[in-house]
Specification:
Blueprint: E1 5-11, E2 14-21, E3 26-30, H1 41-49, E4 53-57, H2 78-92, E5 100-105, H3 107-118, E6 123-129, H4 142-150, H5 155-158, H6 164-172, H7 174-183, H8 214-227, H9 230-237, H10 239-245, E7 258-263, H11 274-279, H12 282-286, E8 290-296, H13 303-306, H14 308-320
Parallel strand pairs: 3-4, 3-5, 5-6, 6-7, 7-8
Antiparallel strand pairs: 1-2, 2-4
């Protein structure tokens, strides 16, 4: 881990912290919630050893990246984040490297889909995990649709009120909040009733998933203790703003080569018709260059940490097809 290089890059009006390692074709790794660049530690080390250059930023509002106004959720739209990522690619890609490989997970997947829609000229190919492409429904805003289907206790709906979840998280403490998310493996939509959350007692001992060490948890805690959770929650609060800004992309298709991976215990696989969309042709219709869908059995949401060797293999096999000189 000490071989990973860290630097700050000025992009799109913010100062973005970037972790990177290796030389060769660039892979941009985009994290989700509640994560930072560190979620890609296994991938960074592996792909650097295989002749790639792994680049993993902290997104705006996260980790050591600074400059985003966390008091304004409208500054956390996909347009803002894609602007950050395009500026980062322009700043750090090798001379003549106009396109890069992209890997996304959770909200990182959302932003990777958006990057491919808005700037397909920047992406060689994409491996996305957990969150499939979501076509824009011109008839209803996403948060309104989720509230209508799942009610006010659904986690994304609960995240909308500024300060409310931050207050509940403060009572539970950073360590317990993170392990609540990391341990969740229910193949069902996630509900966080007010004052109850995941339902775990504050007196219960904190348990770690098998794939996370005490040192890993300590690193995550150090970053979220510093920033709080508002930056990450702002992405959920910008969902309806995204909808307002993306009218021009209604019915647009993702036209870059894609591989998609999800665990069968991932809550995203069991939300809002996602399973049928993935398996019954809707996904392929909206992402015509979708080349492969991998559903990992017995695997939860944080699959790049839970099954790093499998994930590395899947990513490596796919990207190697697009290298002029195979690493």
């Amino acid at each position: 881990m000490e071989t990973i290089e860290h630097k700050m890059v000025a992009v799109n009006g913010i100062n973005m912290h970037v972790a990177e390692l290796g030389k060769g074709p660039m892979i941009l790794f985009i994290h989700g919630f509640p994560e930072v660049w560190y979620t890609w530690r296994h991938q960074i080390l592996y792909f650097a050893s295989q002749g790639y250059r792994a680049v993993a930023p902290d997104l705006r509002g996260y980790g050591d990246t600074t400059g985003a106004p966390t008091d304004d959720p409208t500054k956390f739209t996909t347009h803002h984040v894609v602007g950050d990522l395009v500026a980062l690619i322009d700043a750090v890609a090798a001379p003549g490297e106009d396109k890069v490989f992209v890997v996304g997970h959770d909200w990182g997947a959302v932003h990777a889909w958006a990057l491919c829609l808005y700037r397909p000229d920047k992406v060689k190919s994409l491996v996305n995990m957990s969150v499939p492409f979501t076509p824009r429904n011109p008839m209803i805003k996403p948060v309104d649709a989720l509230r209508a289907v799942y009610g006010n206790d659904y986690y994304i709906v609960r995240f909308q009120e500024r300060g409310e979840m931050e207050g509940e998280f403060a009572v539970r403490g950073t360590e317990r909040v993170l392990t609540d998310f990391f341990n969740d493996r229910k193949p069902a939509p996630l509900f966080l009733p007010k004052g109850i959350g995941f339902g775990n007692s504050l007196d219960a001992p904190i348990s770690l998933p098998s794939w996370l060490s005490k040192e890993d948890l300590a690193y995550y805690c150090s970053k979220f203790d510093k920033t709080g959770f508002t930056g990450g929650l702002n992405y959920y609060r910008a969902l309806n703003t995204n909808w307002e800004f993306t009218g021009p992309w209604t019915k647009a298709k993702v036209k870059v080569p894609v591989k998609f991976i999800v665990g069968d215990l991932d809550l995203t696989y069991h939300s809002m018709g996602a399973k049928d969309y993935i398996e019954k042709g809707g996904f392929k219709k909206d992402v015509p260059l979708l080349e492969d869908v991998i559903i990992l059995q017995g695997v939860g949401h944080f699959l790049q940490e839970e099954k790093p060797h499998e994930i590395n293999k899947h990513i490596h096999q796919f990207f190697n097809h697009f290298c002029t000189t195979e690493p």
